[in-house]
Amino acid sequence: MPVIKHARYLGGHKFQLGFSTGESGVVDLAGYRARGGVFERFNDLSYVREGSVDPEWETLCWPGGVDIAPEALYRLACPYVQDKNAGNLGDLLKHYWLLRIVERVLETQKPQRVAYLESHAGAGLFQLDGARVSRLEKERSAVCPSVEAWGLFDRLNPGIENGEYLGSFALALRLLAEYSRSARGATVRGVLYENHPEAIARIEAHWQRLFPLGMVVDMRKAASSADSFLKGIRACVEDGFSVFWLCDPFWGKSKDDDMRWWRLLEDVPQTYGILFAYVGGDSTKTGMGKLDFQKTIHAPCQPWRQAPDNIRAYGLYCTHAVCRLFDQI
Q: Best exposed site among 57, 60, 318, 328 by fewest CB in 10 Å?
């Protein structure tokens, strides 16, 4: 559970908070006044400004024994952004290619031991609002206009019409579970990295729905670094698994950290990798050709010897590179 390491009063009912996860954010506590009881004191701003971090309880406290649980403050200060992004055009592009690539490799290589690793797993199951559901068909057509091509996605994601949307790892592991049953017991392993408390809590709450019965899933409740992720990939390879992995290289805390993810490609063993980052564009205003995506090395890896000149702190790559690499499998 994240705890509060420092706080700064910003005026009104607002505080800037820093958490043990390294994240920070602003909370507005004006809504607590309506709860009554001890929080009636929040009507007095001179009292509100006295809030500070108690070093023992590691949360925001006020004179007279008033405090707010750190997990509640964390949810206010650091809302879970993947709820907003789930099912957008970038997500659909990623999931479409992820499933096609995994399916193609399973059909052609027929491995008996298969592992799937994901660097930033997310919650795995999302509830889309009505507006997002209504836009799915249009955005799916932007990724691939063929209705038949989405058959696999729809089969693995049966609740989509009701707004239930599965994340990358849930889709991939469901596909691998189907393969395991058809391949007479092929062994499947999942290794997931996630450190956001909201995402972890939701994965644990929906564990039986997300993971097929009997599947071995190693849930690592920690932020993945390029080094730890590479270590996980290597361990699966050494255990004799054919490895699929997916990572987003732009989750680092600095440009140097981001570039360490790119350098991972030079060290990764022979695996099936998907490096993905959605870096711009509004799918409601622009066509697919005007969006910038990054999605590379979908084949038995041919690691970059050096990053393309246009990577800089972010990096862009045209979507047609996906098609060329897909053809190599």
A: 328
Which of 300, 238, 301, 233 lies closest to 265, judged by CA? 301
**Tokens 């920070």, located at residue:** 24
- 10 Å CB burial of residue 167 (0-12, 13-18, 19+) is buried
How far apart CA 169 and CA 117 sit, in angstroms, is: 8
Measure the CA–CA gap between 97 and 78, rounded to whole angstroms: 30
Helix, strand, or coil here: 156? helix
Per-residue pLDDT of the chain (329 residues), as tens digits, is 678 999 999 999 999 999 887 778 899 999 999 889 999 999 999 999 999 999 999 999 999 999 999 988 987 887 776 777 788 877 887 888 788 878 888 888 898 999 999 988 888 998 887 778 888 888 888 777 888 889 999 999 988 888 889 999 999 999 999 999 887 778 999 999 888 888 888 899 889 888 877 788 998 887 677 788 888 888 998 999 988 888 765 555 555 655 566 666 556 666 766 665 443 333 333 333 333 333 333 333 333 333 333 322 222 233 333 333 444 44
Helix (H) / strand (E) containing 132: helix 130-143
The stretches of 15-126 forming alpha helices (DSSP H) are: 45-48, 70-77, 82-85, 89-109
Q: What is the pTM of this model?
A: 0.69
Task: Set out the domains of the chain in order of their start, with CATH numbers.
Answer: 4-77 (3.30.2020.10), 82-327 (3.40.50)
Cα separation, 286 vs 175, in Å, equals 32
User: In the β-sheet with 24-28, what is the strand arrangement from edge to edge?
Assistant: 4-11, 14-19, 24-28
| Largest Cα span, the chain | 69
